[in-house]
Amino acid sequence: MQLSVIVPVYNGADFLRSSLPALQASTHLEFQLLVVDDGSTDDSATVARRCGATVLTMDQRGGPARARNHAAQSATGEVLVFIDADVRVHPDTLARIDAHLSAHPAAVAVMGSYDDTPEDPGFVSQYKNLFHHFIHQHSRRHAWTFWAGCGAIRRDVFLEAGGFATSYDRPCIEDIELGARLAAAGKRIDLEPSIQATHLKRWTLANLVRTDVWDRAVPWLTLMLRTRNMPADLNVTHAHRASVLLAVLAALLLYAVAIGALVGSNRVVMPMAAALVVACAGLLALNLDLYRFFARKRGLGFALQAIPLHWLYYVYCAVGVGIAVGIEIGRRAGIGAAHPGETR
Fold first, then answer.
1. Structural domain includes residue 32
2. Going by C-beta distance under 8 Å and a sequence separation of 6 or more, which residues neighbour residue 122?
3. CA Rg value for the chain
4. pLDDT exceeds cutoff 70 at 300
């Protein structure tokens, strides 16, 4: 099967020096490589050409959704494979995509996952990527959304659907939104855990929280509220939703215990502390499989450090829910953002 691999890039020359040679070393040889330079000010286009890619240049920066759509018009393959610039495929990634779609003609798209060996050794990067890996390895095989970090869609279906929504003018949930539209139209999207790639990005606590809130939680929850569709899958399972409630409760109880201790009121501290223990026990129980996974992959010390960061994730997800609900209320009242991709 002929594949067209599409890599959007904005100032990602350093990533391309690793990701493009990996694509060229693929065991699957029948593919077209298109790199879309989305207004870069570095030498991304030069690096891409040196690595044997056909480079398409956007007239101005418009985000990866617009860049991918532009490349799809020039693609010659039956299948469009979307790979982010900061993703390094395995030698068999493209072959596995081809094999899956060839073996499952009813599937219009397939997505994989990050592997469990992210490039950056920092704690936050390791946590974020292992969390993503765990979620994609344990979610439903028939998905209701799509992931463009390492995923593929049959070209005719992509064009018929109108591609990615270009109102998302920065890296956001344009892939999730497209997947939701395809699923709503009755199209089958598969998640195949054996299709894997290495994430090269370096995460810090600041960009993790900012991305998770503004580029994931808020637009994703806004989308689900508007479409009134919230399948219990990926990181919005019932266990995750319950964890959000328990994490917020635990934060409020911790605050109450601290205030009670400051004023010297044991009548407040003791019951609040007991309730806090119960809430924390619930969080541990709901997420025990993930923490065991962390311990197996990086040791007990890593898992113990990851627990408070993971609970913080649930707390700021709750903040994202509150913002999304506010946006939706504003929209219904005739004010606010016209699209969840325009929430900033």
1. yes
2. 202, 203, 204
3. 21
4. yes
